[in-house]
Amino acid sequence: MHTETALERVPRWEIFEIALNGQRTGNPYADVSLVALFRYGEHVFEIEGFYDGDGCYRIRFMPGLEGAWSYSSRSSAPELDGISGGFICGPPKKDAHGVVRVARTFHFVYEDGRPYFPVGTTCYAWTHQGSFLEEQTLETLSRSPFNKIRMCIFPKHYDYNSNEPEFFPFEGTPQRGWDFTRFRPDFFRHLEKRIGELRALGIEADLILFHPYDRWGFSDMGAEADDRYVRYVVARLSAYRNVWWSLANEYDLPTSYGSRRRKTPEDWERFAAILVKWDPHGHLRSIHNCRELYDHGKPWITHCSIQRIDVYKTSEMTSQWREDYHKPVVIDECAYEGNIDLGWGNITASEMVRRTWEGVVRGGYVGHGETYLDPAEVLWWSKGGVLHGQSPERIGFMKRILEEGPVDGLSPISFGMESWDLPCGGVPGKYYLFYFGFNQPAFRKFHMPEGQKFTVDIIDTWNMELHRLPGTFTGQFRIELPGRQFMAVRILRESEA
């Protein structure tokens, strides 16, 4: 048995990595099996290793408990088998809060208990654009309100995104074809570098494993290659605390343009089983639709990831989806602020902001996207770069309101017939957030519990202004409003104000 004696110190929720030298001959990606058992008291985690090229094998683990850990390896290659050792997991870094988990059925929390309210954006192919544009995207994100980004692992081919990527995931070329049994380490090193930079910004990377917007053949590799790819991705990336798994962008479309074949429900369930088995850290898991919602009631799905299925009504369905699935509702695609020719990419900034607020007060979360025409075809939704729209700043204002609210998140509150035209979220008796959307009343009557005093804030969600009315209110009272669209009213019990 080989033994490594030096005990490394690793902060909680950072990556501990074992790097081993081994077999180069044959095809190490397919021929060599490697796992390690990590132990902490009665806790045992089985982690799959991966080949990183040049005779280097790696095993990555993210410890979630402070104290002394031990590990031992098992491998089909003798030189990789029986490696044992240990490390000490110490306190986390200042800004590390752990993996995001589902909390209280409909919301999220970091592993250390800190509330997490997803305010996401979509930037599908940003890691395939070259250094200048990718660095520009990171700089833009650092100044944005977004704490989640939806992004593809594979390159993407679609309108306004026809350039060749710098890196490819497999050995081969577009002209000669691909060897799906041999991964390209430079592709994955580049990807994990970007994921690490997102982590440093406090941004969750919602990674899309499969999508149909493909001219290279990665969307239709066959079951064996698909499964090998999923396992390889999990082995390389699951130790990053800011990773989420999205099995698909638009799972119900054909596997690629020009193809009639679709991945079957059995395919998606098989991929999900791989994630459940080989991701010891239990990152969030979802699957995204085009026309038909997946059954988000499946036990492996942690939260609903939804694209609009109605041209006009999406965020309004949040309440129904909560009731149907009893899971967090994340509307990752409600349409995009922009001016391209496609209907999903030319809503106004005010409509983007309205949909975001509408979903939040109904107890869900709504993602942002931007698709403004650009002479160089650098559209944020696909390539990143810089943001041009008016919605991000206003979504940031909404985020501040949300973070000032109940730490457990907003839940829909019904006032019977009085609330048929006015959604409200909050905590009954303590916190009420009403949103008027595109309505513009000059006043509104409210009914609060008798005998309790409440403060009232008038919020202009578009102009990002908040005005607290003088005095306190109780029982039934009338509030004068400015008669403008996109207003909200926040009513707080005096002890909560």
Question: What report would you give on this structure?
Answer:
The protein is of the alpha/beta class and 497 residues long. The chain folds into 3 domains: 2-90, Sandwich (Immunoglobulin-like); 100-404, TIM Barrel (Alpha-Beta Barrel); 415-496, Immunoglobulin-like. It contains 9 helices and 32 strands. The strands form 9 sheets. Strands 1, 2, 4, 5, 8 and 9 form a 6-stranded mixed beta sheet that branches. It has a 6-stranded antiparallel beta sheet with strand order 25-26-27-32-29-30. A hairpin with a 3-residue loop joins strand 26 and strand 27. Helix 4 (223-237) runs parallel beside helix 5 (265-278) and helix 7 runs parallel beside helix 9 (391-404). The longest helix has 16 residues, at 185-200. It is globular and about 80 Å long. The relative contact order is 0.10. The model has no long low-confidence stretch (mean pLDDT 96).
List the helices and strands and how they pair.
Elements: E1 2-3, E2 8-11, E3 16-21, H1 28-31, E4 34-40, E5 43-48, E6 50-51, E7 56-61, E8 67-75, E9 83-90, E10 100-103, E11 107-110, E12 115-116, E13 120-122, H2 131-142, E14 148-152, E15 170-173, E16 177-183, H3 185-200, E17 204-210, H4 223-237, E18 243-248, H5 265-278, E19 285-286, E20 304-307, H6 318-325, E21 329-333, E22 337-338, H7 349-361, E23 365-366, E24 370-371, H8 380-383, H9 391-404, E25 411-412, E26 424-427, E27 431-435, E28 443-447, E29 454-460, E30 465-468, E31 476-480, E32 487-493
Parallel strand pairs: 1-9, 2-9, 13-14, 14-17, 17-18, 18-19, 20-21, 21-23, 22-24
Antiparallel strand pairs: 3-7, 4-5, 4-8, 6-7, 8-9, 10-11, 11-12, 15-16, 25-26, 26-27, 27-32, 28-31, 29-30, 29-32
Helix pairs in contact: 4-5, 7-9
